[in-house]
Batch of 3 targets.
Target 1
Amino acid sequence: EAQVTQNPRYLITVTGKKLTVTCSQNMNHEYMSWYRQDPGLGLRQIYYSMNVEVTDKGDVPEGYKVSRKEKRNFPLILESPSPNQTSLYFCASTQGISSPLHFGNGTRLTVT
Amino acid sequence: GQSLEQPSEVTAVEGAIVQINCTYQTSGFYGLSWYQQHDGGAPTFLSYNGLDGLEETGRFSSFLSRSDSYGYLLLQELQMKDSASYFCAVPSGYSTLTFGKGTMLLVSP
């Protein structure tokens, strides 16, 4: 089954404790991205990747890192989480600009 | 940069027709997409308009006018399960999307 898999689904952590949210896709898509979703603000792009070792900042990249060492994986790293990073996070992948974006099931992160 | 405007909320009754509008500003236009998101779920793709006109997929249709920087999603024969948030989106760069803030559709019996 074609899918984007994110883990974990829920995460509660404390300020400053490094964490990684994993994302994997099995559709051989070149393009992957991370979004955060907050009430009233919609989906905002954090980082995206056009291929292995090619990443770029989205609209809200501060406080986040990503890596793309393999085509299928695109982890999101929070080196020192803060409470304003409490949000719902989605990973997504696509074949290209006019193709559907396939989303993972989301990771609900709470930073206390 | 890109920006999109859509209504924050729309209400309708079962069986009715509802239209969700989206206006956009973008540098370099490559098409308008629509996504549906049920509460707590992941967004799912509904439609894509690369050219002007109407695209129909079952009960859902999407329209685009590039000269007006405007599109809409039309939902017919509304069902309770259509209660969800609907997002319009335009490409930003090669392969990612900028989304509107979403329209919450509430369908009542």
Target 2
Amino acid sequence: DTEVTQTPKHLVMGMTNKKSLKCEQHMGHRAMYWYKQKAKKPPELMFVYSYEKLSINESVPSRFSPECPNSSLLNLHLHALQPEDSALYLCASSPGGNEQFFGPGTRLTVL
Amino acid sequence: QKEVEQNSGPLSVPEGAIASLNCTYSDRGSQSFFWYRQYSGKSPELIMFIYSNGDKEDGRFTAQLNKASQYVSLLIRDSQPSDSATYLCAPTGANSKLTFGKGITLSVRP
């Protein structure tokens, strides 16, 4: 298995909802990332997990809560989001040589 | 000063031409340089990486790096309409974080 998978592909949620995004990779990569990408902008780093521990939090609001249950899984828990949080959420993984491989993303719409 | 700058676009070239995509970066500590291709509505796809000064070729793609000038480029030979996409330059900085440029949109005219 040589890919990063993300579910769901699309998500629509209200501002009072709680939802989760899921990312999975079975390449043995030890670093996993969450990015947010708005239209016509480059990806913005949110969180980095290295060996299942949170190593970087780019001052992301607490309404986004990451979780790494094991070396293959990465979740992003969402609560009380705002319409401006609507974006493409990308997960990536890296074997440790700096190159990162992205999943297909979850397109999130907050109403 | 922006950390990563890519030459203004969009860039339009005829099919079969060479497309030249340029990128400058400000962090002299950057050691690794990546080029990602992103089709509209899709996620970024890693197409090239380069670590050492000089050229690195992979098929129709050539990455060029000049650390003294803090400059990295991507050449696409024999451009095809399927190459039409946004290309993101991404050097690594502190903590091996990728710093993405704004991207340049390439359009290859049939």
Target 3
Amino acid sequence: GENVEQHPSTLSVQEGDSAVIKCTYSDSASNYFPWYKQELGKRPQLIIDIRSNVGEKKDQRIAVTLNKTAKHFSLHITETQPEDSAVYFCAATPRTLGRLYFGRGTQLTVWP
Amino acid sequence: DGGITQSPKYLFRKEGQNVTLSCEQNLNHDAMYWYRQDPGQGLRLIYYSQIVNDFQKGDIAEGYSVSREKKESFPLTVTSAQKNPTAFYLCASSIEAGDYGYTFGSGTRLTVV
């Protein structure tokens, strides 16, 4: 199966700074890469995703980049706000395996 | 209002008892999943079902069982064989199995007393 590694496990930034979370994957057949945000005590929610035919995708203050050659993808959050504080999970999958493979999560803390 | 509902929100179990966690979705999704979440462990897949009357073991299936008799429902039974069942359990669904995003339920927190 696929193996997804996520770094860092914790990240602290000052409000207004940028935050970057990186994930690597092992299966070159993986073609779908979603990112989830989980606030304390809440359910994970999909915030952005990218497919392997696209190198970058943006949605307001968040963006995801994909490097298929190096097999890594990253989440970028600009102008961070305290409400961005949460655990972020990356995931990857090749369609044929029928499930997502998650990274272990990054606890992002944004200090006011 | 479409969504995925888990019940109960909190569940207490005595050692040696089986308990069943409910997961219902009205999104007309084919695929459903059960995850366990422990602090620092991320999301670990227990079982998943790509279609009605079919399911597969995930990464940590020992001590758990599931059924998928209806498209809308995917209950999880935590059996007495599960040695450390205290955790937060999340159910999810997707349009179909494979390269689609998940919609998660709000979770059930199970505590063994």
